[in-house]
Specification:
This protein is of the alpha+beta class. It is about 35% helix and about 25% strand.
Length: about 170
């Protein structure tokens, strides 16, 4: 009986070591992927940030966003958005954000398959804390339905800006 236990011990130890290496490998791949798709630029002036936002919007200049923010800062789907033509398939979502306090410009690109892994809709608005459900709920299917374009552009009272587009 003791010899059977000794035979299984190296097998279990080998599997445990293999799992540790797999986890380390996945972590390394994840870090490399995010470094490739995330760009943070520090010491970005308001003028430079504004130019970056204009450049990002330029290809969608004749298109209204999918979501707009009213006077009360609440998001809502743009009226008549159903008529927006789907100009192609959506393969990724791009986030451009500027932090006015730290003068940092962040650009992030996420593939749609990654968004599909998220359970539940994406909440948009100042009310995403979970205590108030008056925000806009977007699913990857919503984004694909309306095709590439501006999802929303938002500027906070403090000057922070976010532009979300699909391509």
């Amino acid at each position: 009986m003791a010899s059977r236990t000794r035979k299984w011990l190296p097998i279990v130890a080998g599997i445990a070591i293999l799992l540790v290496f797999v986890v380390i490998g996945l972590a390394a791949v994840s870090v490399a992927w995010f470094r490739q798709n995330l760009d943070v630029t520090h010491d970005t002036s308001r003028t430079e940030a504004t130019q970056a936002f204009e450049d990002a919007r330029r290809q969608y200049a004749d298109q209204r966003p999918l979501v707009e923010f009213g006077d009360d800062r609440r998001p809502e789907f743009v009226k008549g958005i159903e008529t927006r033509k789907n100009a192609g398939t959506v393969s990724s979502i791009h986030v451009l954000a500027w932090d006015a306090d730290e003068d940092s410009l962040v650009s992030l690109s996420l593939p749609m398959w990654l968004l599909r892994l998220k359970r539940g809709p994406i909440m948009v608005g100042e009310y995403v804390s979970g205590f108030d459900d008056r925000g806009v709920r977007l699913t990857p299917e919503d984004l694909e339905k309306y095709g590439p374009g501006v999802v929303f552009e938002y500027e906070s009272r403090s000057g922070d800006r976010v532009l979300l587009t699909t391509q």
